[in-house]
């Protein structure tokens, strides 16, 4: 089997071949490294790499296979780790100039669980500066381009992970999500990103231990691979106040739901979000295709008019917790998006904070009531097609100016506020020929229902070329001469991968 043939296989199939001694973890690692070296110059998805240790780990994994005995669930699978997440002994910059030399002494809790499950940390994936924003560009590694058109943005903040998955550089990648950072890049790059219920995946790094706004989560190329990765991540951690116990066996192996029995509610905009007319048209076409398959597929009235101000306050609160000290001592090391959040918090009162948490409670209860009548809720994931990465954020949608750099993410952050699990599911292309992603939402702590329903939809989409997951043109990416993303200097303390890496001084 050639490397290209190997990298077309889903992660669960690769794991099965490894377990059956039909695939060497070393061969798989070499295939991934070769793909990174060939494709990453066009998209700049990969930040620091750990190829030497990854190859050594693959050799060790092969020896374990040959010795026989039980193997962990992700044994031998190469893993990309979002650069916001600490990796022991591997440069972890968060895309921030003050962290250019930061080499952690320990993994974060998610990475530690994935290593214990047999995954091999191979590389870090690119992010916006400190993860602030949904356009993956920063002053350390430069900008990540969309695999379907590298001049356009890959979304964020897990943009490097999404682009790496879409191009087959890695079979599994990590992500995190506050206002859509797993779902948006997955939708824009044509892969799957899952925002789980808060606490399902433990997060010891969260500054506000009881805050449900930010979560860690898995990304993969399809629903079943995402479920396999999620199952390896879950479990109680007494160091995370929100963590709760969950058996991975309840999530994987995965069986699709009976699509003909599903009650589906849908909304184009949650009653308040700005959405481009072209995205509305594509979403209506998708709903028209899905409706005959389901038991019910009906419009859903949800009043989310409180969401914008609520998210402003709760997001600003989390940014103050994480960055206030840096803002006081070294504000120049923070990007404009991070500073904007911290500065917004200075104007927020205790009364504002109480009002925001009351509003979030009302939003969560409205969603909960909707699930009395529906099994799943469908919405668009993003309000517009990918725009050029040189544009920091979408400042206008359908003639409506955005109030700040993140309001264009409202389709996702209304769901964040509800604390319900949600998944971005590839569903063909939009009118610009770019990937289109459905946002699939399930009841609170309903990951099993979410994954089963998403798998049923994915299997139905596979039979229709207009609905199936789109694939980027790898041949074109191999030959691409990428536009200047940055005037760069090699970042000290880490190994760069690809064309861009270093200081972003021209965007």
Structure characterization notes:
By secondary structure, this protein is of the alpha+beta class. The chain has a single domain, classed as Alpha-Beta Complex (Amidase signature (AS) enzymes). The chain is 36% helix and 15% strand. It has 15 helices and 17 strands. The strands form 4 sheets. The chain has an 11-stranded mixed β-sheet, with helices on both faces. Helix 6 (159-166) runs parallel beside helix 7 (183-189), helix 10 (307-329) crosses helix 11 and helix 10 packs across helix 12 (350-370). It is globular, with a radius of gyration of 21 Å. The two termini are 41 Å apart. Residues 486-494 and 496-507 have low confidence and may be disordered.
Class computed from helices, strands and strand pairing: alpha+beta
Q: Spatial order of the strands in the main sheet?
A: 1-3-2-8-10-9-16-17-13-11-12
> What is the 3D shape?
globular
The major β-sheet equals: 11 strands, mixed
CATH superfamily: Amidase signature (AS) domain
Number of discrete domains? 1
Features:
single chain, about 500 residues, alpha+beta, eleven-stranded mixed beta sheet, 17 strands, about 15% strand, globular, disordered C terminus
Give the structure's gist in a few sentences.
By secondary structure, the protein is an alpha+beta fold. The chain has helices spanning 3-7, 11-19, 25-43, 51-67, 109-116, 159-166, 183-189, 223-233, 277-290, 307-329, 336-345, 350-370, 410-418, 447-461, 474-479; strands spanning 46-49, 78-82, 120-125, 137-138, 142-143, 145-146, 149-153, 172-177, 192-195, 215-220, 263-266, 296-299, 376-380, 396-397, 400-401, 422-429, 435-441. The protein has a single domain (3-479), classed as Amidase signature (AS) domain (Amidase signature (AS) enzymes, Alpha-Beta Complex), CATH 3.90.1300.10.
